[in-house]
């Protein structure tokens, strides 16, 4: 007990927020991989219409999130990050539960849009920890916090697939709502924030990017977050449908889809803290670039897979690259951003991720509807390569600027 009281507050918050991230990741992933199958039970839709509705259901949440995130970020800099965590947890408690009662696809899509406006627990957890963690521990800490969400995403689809296969696709949404209520209680009682609002009229009007020395790099990280999210979420609307095709419509498709959805999480869970610590030692740029190259190399073979096992192997390997991407972009922004602007910068990053979560699934739905599910992986490879070019350009331009100023 004495050892616990000696831990710094940021470390105790890290443990509590890890639990909150785990619950959020588990709850969301319990239902999302089976959303297309849930929609398919609401009517007799042709393939193009089913993929369109699935894309809208995925993207609607993130579209509203992208619109409102800067508002929540500005409010967080005035009121603190803990109130934003509570708002997100309680908002998702209500909307996820109601989604389970959806009578038709349009009500479902509408509730998903409303959910997006009140979500953002994980990004606010990053912002709170980023405002407290010592710089020399930022990479490892962000990697550790990421494992909470990823661990939840690992377990959620497997449990959700088992439950959905037996009791139907509505039950995972009710479980999601219940889990977010537990996250609300955990956050309320165990997260402590010593927040002092910045009472400065000039600050309220000035750009969040004032005081950031490496502006190009921070912008590149925000754009990178968007492209990473677009790449990783592009498969979501079609994963269960692609698995169904590979299995020739035989066996427990929901369970297999859950396992395939969870596999990247196993790799990310194992690799994220190690790659975060590696970034602290050799610099985040090298880890990020290597992760992008490896990610592109793993998406290409998915175009050629003919079995669920082969798809699972490459999905697992993509999880290793995921561990080198989003946590590293969060670390770069943490190191480059002044404390008084960190919530706003992270809210812009959240908006960028949300836009990626809109663009990725919608592009995938269009590609899958016009061509085939397999072509989604080629599209994703293109997004990763664009991301690599942007990151390299930003670092080289930033280096040149610093060299000239000296």
From TrEMBL:
Keywords: Cell membrane, Membrane, Transmembrane, Transmembrane helix, Transport. Residues 13-399 form the Major facilitator superfamily (MFS) profile domain. One of its GO terms (cellular component) is plasma membrane. The keyword Signal does not apply. GO terms for molecular function: transmembrane transporter activity. It comes from Secundilactobacillus odoratitofui DSM 19909 = JCM 15043. It comes from the Bacteria. The keyword Cytoplasm does not apply. This is Major facilitator superfamily protein. It is found in: Cell membrane. The chain crosses the membrane at residues 15-39, 51-72, 84-109, 171-191, 217-241, 253-275, 287-317, 375-395. It holds the Pfam family MFS_1. It is a multi-pass membrane protein. PROSITE patterns: MFS.
